[in-house]
Amino acid sequence: MRLLSLALVLAATASAAMVKTDSTCVVTPLSNTPARSIGTVAPADRDVDPEAEPDLWADLGPFADPPPGALGALGYYPRPEPSRGSRPLPPPVEIGVQGNRNHHVPKDGALEARQTNTDDTPQMLDAFKQCGKDGTIIFKEGTYNIRQVMNTTDLRNCSIEIHGTFVWSADNIQYWLSKSFSVTYAGRSTAWLFGGRDVSMRGFGKALFNGNGQVWIDQNRNNANQNGRPISLTVWRGTNIFIDGITWRQAQFWHTFVAHSQNVTMTNLDMNTTSNSQWKAVNTDGTDTWNSKDVVIANWTVKCSDDCISVKGNSTNIYVNNVTCYSSGGMCVGSMGSNTGQPDYVDNVVFENVRLFDSSNAAWVKTYPGTGHVKNITFRNIHFDNVNQPIYVTSCIYSYPNCDSSRLGITDVRWENITGTSRYNVAVGIHCSSQAPCDKLQFSGIDIKPLKGGTSKILCSNIRNQASSGLQCTGPCPGSHPQQLSGNV
Ligand SMILES: *[C@@H]1O[C@H](CO)[C@@H](O)[C@H](O)[C@H]1NC(C)=O
Ligand SMILES: *[C@@H]1O[C@H](CO)[C@@H](O)[C@H](O)[C@H]1NC(C)=O
Ligand SMILES: *[C@@H]1O[C@H](CO)[C@@H](O)[C@H](O)[C@H]1NC(C)=O
Ligand SMILES: *[C@@H]1O[C@H](CO)[C@@H](O)[C@H](O)[C@H]1NC(C)=O
Ligand SMILES: *[C@@H]1O[C@H](CO)[C@@H](O)[C@H](O)[C@H]1NC(C)=O
Ligand SMILES: *[C@@H]1O[C@H](CO)[C@@H](O)[C@H](O)[C@H]1NC(C)=O
Ligand SMILES: *[C@@H]1O[C@H](CO)[C@@H](O)[C@H](O)[C@H]1NC(C)=O
Ligand SMILES: *[C@@H]1O[C@H](CO)[C@@H](O)[C@H](O)[C@H]1NC(C)=O
Ligand SMILES: *[C@@H]1O[C@H](CO)[C@@H](O)[C@H](O)[C@H]1NC(C)=O
Predict the structure, then answer these.
(1) Which of 98, 194, 234, 281 ranks highest by number of CB atoms within 10 Å?
(2) Distance of CA 150 from the midpoint of ligand 2 (Å)
(3) Nearest 10 degrees: CA dihedral of 312, 324, 387, 403?
(4) Whose CA is nearest to atom 8 of ligand 3?
(5) Closest ligand 7 atom, residue 339 Cα
(6) What is the 381 CA–ligand 9 centroid distance (Å)?
(7) Pocket of ligand 9 (CB under 6 A)
(8) Where in the chain is the domain with CATH 2.160.20.10?
């Protein structure tokens, strides 16, 4: 019994602000945690749910700093990164000795330093470890500082509730560049691998994920995909995953990625990564799906600087509904087929009720000259303003000389009720491979007008069913036709 108590004390010391009751873990940000050593609290007093007993925490004065010279819990911060080894813990301090009971939040440097250097990752991972199976994890209000990668892919029947703000550190860029987890796809990596079975993560419109993206944007200096620049959240090997009501601001890289997963529903998400410097927020996609099946994306607002919703290789049954995108690439299948030795398949995708503002493209399919297929895709009820080249299909994205060698077939694609304004005089640009012409393309209700007036061009090449497609092509589309135009053609 004594040994058990000691173990409990040690476990509690390692994650001072996380409290477990039955199968529920309640996490409070360390920066909000009373400055005290939990080791001096009787175990009976420790096992309380602060949600049920708010007064317990209030009494301790959540932001109270210890008096000068005293070693409070403050002595535990900053927590070392794993590579730097651990510091010895300072001696415990009696509760009450250090505390003033003032709830006022001091805006002094000490508090700020504590908030930025605190690392909540250990206690967050501890909550996932202790309550990630048949449990509930509640992140209470406040700011959680995440200074380390998180791998929570072994969750089972777990409900996660986030009421606070997660901030990913950016004063340790080298740490992230070297430690972010690989997600295999195109050499990309992520700060958080999230997966398992029967898992929900709800933010109630209150959860805020802040990736400190401006720092990432500024150090990346307009370069394309930077190795190690981490995707904010990756659903990895997840089955029956529900993610709802989370707001992202200034993501590090792509906001989300769904890979090797099945039955993933992501609803009511709000993302905005906007650069306020001379450097552009490149590659800040809203989401990408890859090697995944049965994915629902609904009620999203995304302001980003690349694909808004992108369906990549080996994605099946993807349903996208009610999404508004600003300054993005719009609704996109691809890119895919970059490896000719490895086929990529995309089947059964619906994008509907989508609004786009100031995008590069609206409803497009981009493949490398590879193998596999794109089949059974619907773009429906899509309205936009000021889109560079709204409908675009290429069989050779960024590899123009090989355009007609692609054997990746694009068939059974519908564009229905696609309306809005194009930035220049091209509404549609389609170049299919002559080796594998597009087939069964269907167009109806296409009404795209150039922003500055005049009539739109509809350029097409190698559409097998062109005569019955419903598209009145006005001229050919060469293999070298670019994704983005810089003026009228
Ligand atoms: C899921 O976990 C909860 C506890 O959070 C438990 O009550 C329930 O029985 C579990 N469901 C299954 C199917 O195991
Ligand atoms: C993530 O955690 C799972 C389960 O614990 C483990 O199998 C896997 O190897 C880990 N992945 C990485 C990249 O560390
Ligand atoms: C798919 O996931 C949802 C949770 O988002 C769950 O309610 C549903 O039962 C799952 N469907 C299947 C077929 O397991
Ligand atoms: C995104 O954030 C920027 C910068 O804060 C702001 O100017 C813009 O209005 C926001 N856009 C949306 C769609 O929320
Ligand atoms: C989309 O948002 C509306 C309005 O808030 C809500 O009624 C609807 O249930 C949401 N749909 C989903 C799939 O969450
Ligand atoms: C669409 O999603 C937005 C949030 O992005 C929501 O406010 C709106 O109510 C939704 N519309 C419908 C019809 O669900
Ligand atoms: C896509 O799926 C096919 C067929 O299962 C497989 O051969 C191929 O390796 C997969 N592609 C990728 C990039 O995983
Ligand atoms: C095409 O995709 C839609 C939507 O995902 C699906 O309902 C339909 O069954 C698919 N058609 C075929 C022939 O697979
Ligand atoms: C066409 O799409 C718009 C939204 O862009 C929608 O309001 C309208 O009802 C749709 N028309 C038809 C006939 O479905």
Answers:
(1) 234
(2) 10
(3) 10
(4) 240
(5) 13
(6) 5
(7) 381, 383, 417, 419
(8) 121-468
Pocket lining for ligand 5, CB < 6 angstroms: 267-268, 298-299
Residue-by-residue pLDDT tens, the chain, 489 positions? 455 544 444 444 444 689 999 999 999 999 875 443 333 333 333 333 333 333 322 222 222 233 333 322 222 222 222 222 233 333 332 222 223 333 333 344 433 444 467 999 999 999 999 999 999 999 999 999 999 999 999 999 999 999 999 999 999 999 999 999 999 999 999 999 999 999 999 999 999 999 999 999 999 999 989 999 999 999 999 999 999 999 999 999 999 999 999 999 999 999 999 999 999 999 999 999 999 999 999 999 999 999 999 999 999 999 999 999 999 999 999 999 999 899 999 999 999 999 999 999 999 999 999 999 999 999 999 999 999 999 999 999 988 888 999 999 999 999 999 999 999 999 999 999 999 999 999 999 999 999 999 999 999 999 999 999 999 999 999 999 999 999 999
| Residue to mutate (ligand 9; options 381, 414, 416, 447; most atoms within 8 A of CB) | 381
- Report which protein residue has its CA nearest ligand 3's atom 6: 240
List the one residue out of 184, 200, 201, 190 whose CA is nearest residue 168. 190
State whether the beta carbon of 267 lies less than 6 angstroms from ligand 3: no
Using the atom order of ligand 3, give the atom closest to the CA of residue 294.
Answer: 1
Predicted TM-score of the model (pTM): 0.86
Which atom from ligand 4 is nearest to the alpha carbon of 270?
Answer: 14
Tokens in use for 375? 């089949």
CA distance 128 to 138: 10
Closest CA relative to residue 271, chosen from 190, 326, 195:
326
Neighbours of 447 (CB within 10 A): 11
Helix (H) or strand (E) holding 215: helix 213-220
Q: Which of 164, 134, 166 is CA-nearest to residue 150?
A: 166
